[in-house]
């Protein structure tokens, strides 16, 4: 059961026309700092998950999402907080992807994803993408 205080997060698995996936590294001072992540962030009150996804991807990686489909939902309890990751597969977008918040970022092949340290909640996302 999801905890009532769980943080609802919109997460985007952005895929380019070569089939590579965008990942970036969380700032050290943040929750799950230094881990790699898929871009995204907290869904605000009165905002749909899709709207949050579009807003966060515009803010964090400079793109306008034009097509995305639900990929998976993960509820996970860290010792210090609970999250619900609402993960979307972003197939098409306009704009040139780059990280706007000074984080390290790169495009990686699906088969390379398992080599990157992701937060524990991401294990199933990476498994689904890698297979
Ligand atoms: N964006 C993102 N967050 C993740 C992933 N995996 C994972 O456990 N999280 C957790 C870490 C955070 O506790 C939470 C998302 O927080 P965030 O720091 O991205 O939220 P935000 O962009 O709205 O940040 P802020 O404006 O509040 O600083 O979800 C992931 O792949 N991507
Ligand atoms: Mg974020």
Helix/strand layout:
Elements: E1 7-14, E2 21-25, E3 36-37, E4 40-42, H1 49-61, E5 64-77, E6 82-94, E7 105-108, H2 123-130
Bound molecules: 8-OXO-2'-deoxyguanosine-5'-triphosphate and magnesium ion (MG).
Residues 40-41, 60 line the site of magnesium ion (MG).
What do we call the CATH homologous superfamily?
A: Nucleoside Triphosphate Pyrophosphohydrolase
Please state the average pLDDT score: 95
Rg from C-alpha positions?
14 Å
Q: What ions, cofactors and ligands are bound? A: 8-OXO-2'-deoxyguanosine-5'-triphosphate, magnesium ion
CATH class call: Alpha Beta
Largest sheet: 4 strands, mixed
Tell me the total number of β-strands: 7
H/E topology pattern: EEEEHEEEH
**How many domains comprise the coordinates?**
1
State the secondary-structure class. alpha+beta
Secondary-structure arrangement, i.e. CATH architecture: Alpha-Beta Complex
- The CATH topology assignment is Nucleoside Triphosphate Pyrophosphohydrolase
Continuous helix count: 2
Low-confidence stretches: none
What does the model show?
The protein has 131 residues and is α+β, with helices and mostly antiparallel strands. It has one domain (7-130): Nucleoside Triphosphate Pyrophosphohydrolase (Alpha-Beta Complex). The chain contains two helices and seven strands. The protein has helices spanning 49-61, 123-130; strands spanning 7-14, 21-25, 36-37, 40-42, 64-77, 82-94, 105-108. β5 and β6 (82-94) form a beta hairpin. The chain is globular. It binds 8-OXO-2'-deoxyguanosine-5'-triphosphate and magnesium ion. 8-OXO-2'-deoxyguanosine-5'-triphosphate (8DG) is lined by residues 7, 9, 11, 30-32, 37-42, 81, 83, 85, 119, 121-122. Residues 7, 9, 11, 30-32, 37-42, 81, 83, 85, 119, 121-122 line the site of 8-OXO-2'-deoxyguanosine-5'-triphosphate (8DG).
